[in-house]
Amino acid sequence: MFRFLTRRVLGAIVILFLITAVTYFLFFVLPSDPAQLACGKNCSNKDLVSAIHHRMGLDQPVYQQYFDYIRGIFFGRNMPDGQNCAAPCFGFSFANDQPIWPLISDRYPTTFSLAVGGSAAFLVIGVGLGMLSAWQQGKTFDRVASSISLLGNSVQIYFIGPLAIALFADNLGWLDHGHDPTWTSDPIGSLNGLVLPCLVMSVIFWSNYSRQTRSLMVEQMAEDHIRTARAKGMGSKYVFYRYALRGAAASIITIFGIDLGSVFGGAIITEATFGLHGLGNLAVNAVFSLDLPLEMAVMIFSASAIVIFNIVVDAAYALIDPRIRLA
Amino acid sequence: MTTLTKPEAQPTPQGSEHFLSVRDLYVQFATEDGTVKAVDGLSFDLDRGKTLGIVGESGSGKSVTNLAILGLHNPRNTTIAGEIMLDGQELTGASERTLEKLRGKKMAMVFQDSLTALSPYYTVGRQIAEPYMKHTGASKKEAKARAVEMLGRVGIPHPQSRVDDYPHQFSGGMRQRAMIAMALVCDPELVIADEPTTALDVTVQAQILDLLKDLQQETGTSIILITHDLGVIANTADDVVVMYAGRAVERGTVRDILKTPEHPYAWGLLGSIPRLSADVNVPLAPIPGSPPSLLNPPPGCPFHPRCAFAETVGGDRCRTERPQLPDGRGSACHLTVDQKRDIFIEQIQPRLR
Ligand SMILES: Nc1ncnc2c1ncn2[C@@H]1O[C@H](COP(=O)(O)OP(=O)(O)OP(=O)(O)O)[C@@H](O)[C@H]1O
Ligand code: SF4
Ligand SMILES: [Mg+2]
User: Fold this and answer.
1) Cβ contact A57:A32 at 8 Å
2) Which of A43, B52, B109, B257 is exposed most, by the fewest CB atoms within 10 A?
3) What is the tens place of the pLDDT at every residue in A153-203?
4) B122 to chain A, minimum CA–CA distance in Å?
């Protein structure tokens, strides 16, 4: 387990290095001059631009800039103009000269809550449907469930989102409209505000997870070790949950790991649909206001989050499969 | 006390009742291509404390027969007919609940490939302890102690610590021992070993077979030993059933089958026993041809497309008339008793040495 995780963490560090480097240099080679952007539209004074260049460190060689940037994230730094930027420092926004980290830390709880809550919802619903279908293989439920989940496959969040709000929040009044969570001050209210967005977000994942779970369970039930367990006199329900599900779980987790990117994407679309203020909204604003440091920070932050969640998923996989845990 | 003993085995009542009696067993699978007649009118008996060897090529229906005894076929696509009497209890058509109580307790199975037949997700100890808890109501602790004891019994060194290992941490031979421990944990009266040694190398094979024999001596359990290798049953079985295309084609004591086999198919099997003493450069002589389709079995004797002696029988009897297997010692072949004896002595035996 330890060796497995060490290997994964080392791999993740390499990936994070690549992500930050590529992102940084991508932005660096963009045709627009950041100093010009930071200075504003009517900034034609050469001296002013070069002063800004110096202030932003743009007169340094690019690797030095990158190094300073990374150092800032971990330890904070003093900008060339003497302005202090506390760790984690992603620089200052072009748009309003504010440090960037507080902008992100203000927003990510919404996105993370959606990603986690949405995942929980589609794992419970999708995997649950798949298991029931496998158990009822070939019977009516199996067919109905596969049609329902197919339906889920063909809808879009921004289409069912408003419908769900109109139905469950406005008309029936069963669920909250959905609002940004404030976990520390109002945990219950935060939870309530997430139920509808998370459910809506989960719909697009149902079909994949129920189909995969069904076929994994059916596959598992045909395994030799299942037959052995039954030959020992273990009941079919017991074998289904203890043996088949255990085997399927490992594969489901792998699929989930691959899907992490789409999960974040789903969370961002859900944010927009429900008018929540998360990272997606922040990134869109950054793009429109040509706020390069903010865009870069959001990109690096989200990519890192996915890489880190991937390690968590890997660890969960290793916990389930002793052949990996003990390797 | 938790020793490997078993309640006094009742002696089989004179003549009539056998411990296990399979009569006219048919097992058919509904598939997309049609009905697979995997077992086609099979009968055999097994007495307490005895070992029955079932031999036959791959696909002859050995596993299907024994899975039917345990009731492990999927009822959705399987039709089973005939009679399976275990200790006076009818098993065909018995409810799943009844069978669940018997499996692992009264009858147990040792499977061939211990790597796939054990779950990779649970410790060996847990997998052994599980049926013990289920069938005896033992606590977790007692069951684990029993698992340790069983592992020691089947010759696993340091059972106290190995009990917490996962199957992939065991060698192939050790896994097979663990599987035997698992099958024997509730002192079953019938153990079905389905090619328990096929995946193992020759020395380990011999050890596993010895282990089974020793355990049988101690507990008086009956064993069905399935194999496609007559060599395996030579030192292990009392009686032998030779299966071909889902039917028994010859039946006798192990001595009968090895010394005076009657069926041309059995002669073929005998010819393919690997001998440790044999020159490695002399290839085994497998039976020419391949097993018949179970979807459309050939009419008459199912072996006739591969049989060198159909001409000796004469006419097209072999192609049209299904030879019957007599009760007791005998073979399902149209050759006369004298022909069988003469051909074996004159043509087959000289080639076996
Ligand atoms: N569930 C099933 N559905 C359809 N056909 C099956 C099924 N199980 C077994 N068969 C067929 O029944 C025949 C007998 O199979 P069985 O497993 O009993 O052979 P075997 O004698 O045990 O062979 P081996 O030595 O290879 O284990 C084979 O032709 C197999 O393809
Ligand atoms: S009945 Fe005919 S074909 Fe069948 S084994 Fe005997 S001789 Fe060969
Ligand atoms: Mg088999």
Assistant:
1) no
2) A43
3) 788 888 888 888 878 888 887 888 888 888 888 888 888 888 899 998 998
4) 8
CA pair distance B143, B163, nearest whole angstrom: 11
The strands making up B34-46's β-sheet, listed across from edge to edge, are B34-46, B20-31, B78-86, B89-90
Q: CA-based angle B282:B286:B290, to the nearest 5?
A: 155
Q: Compare all CA atoms of chain B with the CA of A137 and give the residue at the minimum distance.
A: B76
CB pairs under 8 A between A and B: 78
Q: Which domain holds residue B324?
A: 260-352
CB contact under 8 A, B166 and A322: yes
DSSP state of B346: I
- No. of helices (H) and no. of strands (E), chain B: 15, 11
Residue A10 neighbours by CB under 8 Å, 6+ apart: none
DSSP code, position B25: E
List B224's β-bridge partners, or say none: B52, B192
Beta bridge partners of B78: B29
**Rounded Cα–Cα distance for residues B24 and B217 (Å):** 30
Residues A197, A183, single domain; the answer is yes
Q: How far is CA B234 from CA A58, B54, B209, B254, B285, in A?
A: 87, 12, 11, 7, 19
Q: Does B27 reside within a domain?
A: no
CB-based pocket (< 6 A), ligand 2:
B 263-264, 301, 303-304, 307, 309-310, 313, 318, 323, 333-335
Most B CBs within 10 A among A224, A232, A238, A320, hence the mutation to make, goes to A232
- How far apart CA A14 and CA A23 sit, in angstroms, is 14
Domain limits for position A256: 101-325
- Asked if omega into A88 is within 30° of 0 (cis), the reply is yes
B72-128 confidence digits (pLDDT tens): 998 889 999 999 999 999 999 899 999 999 999 999 999 988 889 999 999 999 999
Per-residue pLDDT of A256-287, as tens digits, reads 999 998 999 889 999 988 889 889 889 988 88
Closest Cα in chain B, distance from residue A230 (Å): 7
**Residue A211, domain CATH:** 1.10.3720.10
- DSSP-derived letter for residue B167 is G
Tell me the CA distances in angstroms from A197 to A116, A123, A200, B9, one per residue in order. Answer: 12, 15, 5, 67
